[in-house]
Amino acid sequence: MLLERGHRIKKPHKPNCFCKELCTSRKRGESLSNARSRLHAYAALSNPVYLCQLSYDPVFSTFMLCTELEDCSKVEKEFKNEYSEMAEKLRLFSVEMIEQCRTTEEVEMILKHTTGDLYSHFLFPQLILAIDCEIKEFVTHPNCQQVLRSVWLGEWHYWKKKSFFSQLMWVIPHIIQLPFMVLLYMFMPWTKMAERMKSPINKFLSATASYVIFLILIIIQTSHSMVTRGPPSTGWEWPIMIWVLGYICVEINKFWFQGYQRYFSTLWNWYDICMLSTFVATFSVWLWAYLDLIESDQKYLERRYWKSYDPALIGEGLFAIASILAYWRLLYIFQINSYLGPLQIRLNLVFYKD
């Protein structure tokens, strides 16, 4: 009845708000009555009945309000338990809403719903928002996971029946077929085989196969020892440069798609930047070594007479560092495994536990 008459609960200002309208006096300290008034207001706003009656998108409102409550619990330590309890109830409420879905279409309708332009370029905006708000109970719910798995596999329903070893061996044919698949996708995208390549699992396998080829090139390059001054001249440097240039383009595209805030909030993106920067630095030093060789004309000088800061030695060291970083990046790919992925998460919690 009150809602029909236009009565609404006014949203309180956050504890760390110092706006000129109402919160200027907080610089001198906040009274207990104001703090409790905010607590009671949030308790009313987080009521599931109120959210369902007032909000056009209860799931979105639940996620945003849950984030605000977590922020309040970090600022107002005195009422941390109360705010955390309200946030936990909202998480359970979001899980209860997704539990009401009985079909895949209903789950997709919730996950694909957008509010404004926020995350509208993603396939499942609500799921991305839940990840950003750290609503783990919603993300890990079986209904969400089932929809994600069906989208991930596409037409490859037989993939989940394979063992880990069989899945690993599936990458080998992909390595052989990769050049033909790329040409097919570029020049004949309307074919049925090219359509199958658009599935996320196939894109992942193709990316993995490409990265395995990249590592093989690095192994071949590192197996040749330098006996002359100047840049390495095995002939494998050019394919490595092409691969690195391709990965740089991938990172630029990822940055453009995700935005700077989301892109730089992922540690693996920072890792890729460091790895690719090391490769670019290596190529630059190789160019320096080539120019230095032309100037000095001491190609066959014995290694023991080389200067400690010789560009050939610097390039060799940088390439070794870049190679190690490239090998360690396999951990990022192994996250897809149901055993190695959770193991990495547990290790992260050990080293970065709050």
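Second entry:
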Amino acid sequence: MKQDYLKVLKEKLYEFQASKQDIDDILSDYEQLYDDAYQKYQDHDKVKEILGNPKDVAHELIDTLHIKKERNIKTKIVAIMPFISVIIFMGLGFGLDLWNPGWLVFLLIPMTAILFSTRLKEGIIAITPFVSVIVYLILGFGFDAWHPGWLVFLSIPMISILLSAKAKDIPVSISVFVSVIIFTLIGTYYNLWNPTWLVFLSTPMIGVLYKENKLHVLIYELSFIIAIGVYLFMGYNYGLWQWGILGFILPVIVGLLFGDVHFMWSYPPKGRKRMEWMIMVSTVFIALTTFLALGYLINGWAYAWQVFLLIPVVAILLGEPKHLTPIMPFISVVLFFSLGYFFSLFHISWMAFLLIPMVAIMENA
């Protein structure tokens, strides 16, 4: 009876193309299991019931072997990636004199480790900062497009939103980033900062579409359209842009009438939530003001984008004030870019990204 059981198990394993070594190991283990179970119960049928149908056992074992084999392959790839990166780097350096930005190949090391150790969706989100850095430096070194090349970093939150947010929340969530991209590109290449800034109104206009009362939605949208029309009419016909801006009081009035707009001092409630809300509002204001000041006053568009990283950093610190690991990617990006851009140290500034795993290890050790 035991031999029949092992024979069926062996045939199924062969059928699934398991290696001879794996088959021998499995048969040896199950022979021992069979003997132990029979010694205890003295009943072949009982033993089969305990061990399971040999065909089903073979299915389960082969799945385990495939997973193990796949994991071993991934582990080997991750292990040899530093050597592959060095070879590629040396080839680019000695062969094509591309030491910079050839060092970018070293980013393959953490990217490969991330992709092979996480699920696909989380892996894509995690490697987006690395891909953004690569694209940004190619745009910068290859086309001298540091500005508006920095826009590629907006792909980090956008991809995170696209892959993790609910479908109904995606349009309004990414509208801000899309608006920044449109505003910056048109402003940079066509010098139409005004009235291109109107693109930012897409966020509230999309947001009101979620209201259940369709009449309210219609009134809101009409108020925005009228406000935009008044602004453009006063600006283009009379050059009175500053007076045209008063047209945007209309959507605010509509919001007050519908109870959707509250004054700051009455919302949100008092306490920690109110403090956190005020800190975030202040952070956004400071970041935006600093960005525009650096850009317009000293033409610092190429590096001013970094101030926007302050927003997610503050948000993370408000939620996890005792942990540095979540904010290290942002700090690493700033260190990497600042050392490279201001001191021409891109060939070594990439090591700033090593701070991410180092801090994670220290905090979790």
